[in-house]
Amino acid sequence: MGDIAFLPGITGKYYCVTTYYIETGKVGHGIEDFYIVFWQGNEEIGTVTGYDKVISVNANWKVRANGWITDASDNFAYLIGCKFQYELTFIDPTVIPILSIGTCFFAGV
Fold first, then answer.
1. Reduced to 3 states, what is the DSSP secondary structure of residue 102?
2. Mean pLDDT of the chain
3. pTM of the model
4. DSSP string, 41-93
5. Alpha carbons 48 and 36: distance in angstroms, whole number
6. 27-40 and 10-24 as β-strands: parallel, antiparallel, unpaired?
């Protein structure tokens, strides 16, 4: 779960479920299903969903993912088919909920 600044005045919250994960030494590889809920102030204005492939480096708590937007509410339907990428660093993966800071991109809009 993470917060996203999307456009001026529009924020989002990112949620994911890891459907596959394997560690090979100090590197992890996984697949996630995700959804993002977008807000303008206190009003929910839409959602997008998709999947991504994840690589995590356990030594420095960094994660990088590449995936696709597969569905969206009407307000964000123009993002369907766009590439979704993020890079983040876990603040402390030993504390639940796991919080992170990073950047996400929508490409192909």
1. strand
2. 85
3. 0.78
4. TTEEEEEEEEEEEEEEETTTTEEEEEEEEEEE-GGGGGGTT-EEEEEEEES-T
5. 5
6. antiparallel
